[in-house]
Amino acid sequence: MADSADLIHTVSAAAQPLTGAPADFDVILEHAADASVVLIGEASHGTHDFYRVRAELTKRLIREHAFAGVAVEADWPDAFRVNRYVRGLSDDADAHEALGGFRRFPQWMWRNADVLDFVGWLRAYNDALPTAAPRVGFYGLDLYSLHASMAAVLSYLDIVDPDAAARARRRYACFDHFGDDPQEYGYAATRGWAESCEGDVVAQLLELQQAAATYAPRDGRVLADAHFFAEQNARLVRNAEAYYRAMFRGRAASWNLRDRHMFDTLGHLATHLAAERGCAARLVVWAHNSHLGDASATEMATHGELNLGQLAREAMGPRSLHVGFTTHGGTVTAASDWGGPAQRMMVRPALPGSCEQLLHEVGTSLLLDFRGRSDLREALATPRLQRAIGVIYRPETERQSHYFLTRLPQQFDVLLHYDVTRAVEPLERTGLWDRGEFPATYPSAL
Fold it and tell me: Is 30 among the domain residues?
């Protein structure tokens, strides 16, 4: 389906070319001046350009608008190790070591050269602040760290309350029969082959919450935010237990639980940091477009799915700013199957009728400001295909696997399009990644 010349002309007239100059993103900084949260997406989990630009935008939000932290689509314990490093509170020697917790597939999503650079920058930025100034943090929003989070709760309680630690061990022992794979627990509990651990994890969270005031003065070695870290881990265990049971009731149930967890974590984090700072704490969020663009404007809504972006819009209105990315082609770091090795893969040219193909017709690198251009909102009001590549890329079934319908002006406030992009560089490069996909197989992949 070819786009009309009138549509291409309208979008071209409204688009702002991206030149590589700092002023390219001034409009985003202007919109962010009154925002409580800025959600910056990505069209894949393995594109260097998205990571690099997202980091540059975040640096400006921190320097110019005093944002208090970065919350990312990552596990809470692994990200909190980075948080301790960037705030100068850990024994990690450098940023590379601080990222050492990210060992679960897909490692390259956070163990890559662009994240390494940003973590190093954030540590240097914090180190240069006055001694009494609050440091900017780095936090995780996801809920896949069931076992690591249980271990973190127990480690905290071993210090502040050994008797409570013993009670927690008895409660968390409910999962011991299922090894390291929480999906086995979820399947058994859903089928009625095992007792649910729900009551145990809820009881543990409630006990930890009720003991906050008691634990605070017990041990001077415990950091001021150590209880918050432990409580969030206990909350994560409760939600992860529900998530792994929901997995076997259908995609919408588990997806919605996961994104509600991320939204709730964002709220708890903002409240905690506000108390620490004595003023409102504004946050930047890094996650995939599918989590941060408003799901009510996409095909996801027809399947009963919501997301973090929709929840933020409903709760905050214009105080949540949503920035998305698209690309027409290039390379991406991804795997062919879950748990597979990282590969540098060719990205097929965007499908006809997609927003990526339209923007390819308009220009190479450009910014669309939907908040500031009513003509642009009207021109792109009709649903269009949009590509989403996660950690898996299957070009042979691309339409079914990677495209969905969306109304761009309702999904995002600002869209950044980079026509040809390149794969993010993993910290652990392999011969398979270095070799890449041989161009002669492109685009058939045969």
Answer: yes
Structure tokens at 36: 């409580």
Of 335, 297, 325, nearest to 56 by C-alpha is 325
Residues 73-90 have pLDDT tens digits of 999 999 999 999 999 999
Measured between alpha carbons, how far is residue 5 from residues 62, 235, 327, 360, 370 in Å? 41, 53, 21, 13, 20
429, amino acid identity = R
Tens digits of per-residue pLDDT, 227-236?
899 999 999 9
What single string gives the DSSP state of each residue in 96-107? HHHGGG--SS-G
Whether 235 and 354 map to the same domain: the answer is: no
In a domain? residue 73: no
Domain-located, residue 106: no
Q: Are residues 403 and 346 in the same domain?
A: yes
Q: Do residues 108 and 343 touch, judged by C-beta distance below 8 A? A: no
Using the 3D structure, point to which of 256, 272, 307 is the last residue of a domain.
256
Residues 318-341 have pLDDT tens digits of 999 999 999 999 999 999 999 999
One domain for residues 248 and 367: no
Cα distances (Å, whole numbers) of residue 81 to 28, 89, 298, 389, 396: 30, 9, 35, 28, 38
In a domain? residue 122? no
Q: Which residues share a beta bridge with 320?
A: 37
pTM of model > 0.90: yes
Count Cβ atoms within 10 A of the Cβ of residue 140 and give its class: 0-12 exposed, 13-18 middle, 19 or more buried: buried
- Among 238, 256, 274, identify where a domain stops: 256
Residues 6 or more apart from 36 whose CB is under 8 A from it? 270, 280, 282, 283, 316, 319, 320
**Parent domain of 330:** 1-67+282-446
Q: How many domains does the chain have?
A: 2
| Angle (nearest 5°) at CA 359 between 414 and 334 | 80
Rounded to the nearest angstrom, the gap between the alpha carbon of residue 266 and the centroid of all alpha carbons in its chain is 11
